[in-house]
Design goal:
Keywords: Membrane, Transmembrane, Transmembrane helix
Shape: elongated
Number of strands: 3
Order of helices and strands: HEHEHHHEH
Organism: Nonomuraea helvata
Strand content: 5-15%
Protein name: DUF2975 domain-containing protein
Largest sheet: 3 strands, antiparallel
Number of domains: 1
Structural class: mainly alpha
């Protein structure tokens, strides 16, 4: 019964990974078909613009502060490159999820065979760490690049700057997975030494 459950989990993982990868690719391709239409990017006003707004006579309630917050900007006449870059984070996340599903599936198989410290598992976990980092950090960078490209084309770089939303969660996840990979590598070395001594 347990083996059936693990096999079903493996199939579900692979299906979900394949679906995520296909969705990411399809989403990026769909973006390419939206060229010459609107593109929405995340931007923030430059310091000069924010300072101008503060002294422009806008009446704000007592205690209110006008900051340099993030906002959406929609621009007409987008290019294929801009559209694909603006969706590259989803594409990257989908591809990473697809590869991660295969790696986790391989891990589950070794666990089911009661060989958790087999030599390849440390590498699988290290690759998972790399995928988490790439998906979490490179995705927002690509979105920022798309915004910068749009602002440069529209000659708005003096008014707005591309927004960048980075999180510490991917970095923390990567560090945890790398530590786990080292533990599995050490476990594999210990297991190999025990087998040699037993032989």
């Amino acid at each position: 019964m347990e083996r059936i459950f693990v096999n079903l989990t493996n199939y579900a993982l692979r299906f979900a990974g394949a679906a995520a990868a296909i969705w990411g690719i399809a989403y990026a391709i769909n973006g390419a078909t939206q060229a010459r239409g609107y593109i929405t990017i995340r931007v923030a006003p430059t310091t000069e613009v924010a300072d101008h707004l503060r002294v422009s006579g806008v009446k704000l309630p007592a205690g209110a502060v006008l900051g340099e917050g993030e906002l959406s900007l929609s621009m007409w006449d987008s290019t294929v490159t801009e559209q694909v870059l603006s969706r590259a984070d989803v594409l990257l996340s989908g591809l990473c999820a697809g590869v991660a599903a295969l790696l986790v599936s391989g891990l589950l198989k070794t666990f089911m065979n009661q060989q958790p410290f087999t030599r390849g598992n440390a590498a699988r976990i290290a690759w998972l760490a790399a995928l988490v980092l790439v998906s979490g950090l490179a995705g927002p960078m690509l979105s920022r690049l798309a915004a910068a490209t749009v602002l440069d084309r529209a000659e708005l770089a003096a008014i707005f700057i591309p927004s960048l939303s980075l999180s510490w969660v991917p970095v923390a996840g990567c560090v945890f997975l790398l530590a786990l990979a080292l533990a599995f590598r050490r476990g594999a070395q210990t297991s190999g030494a025990v087998l040699e001594n037993a032989g």
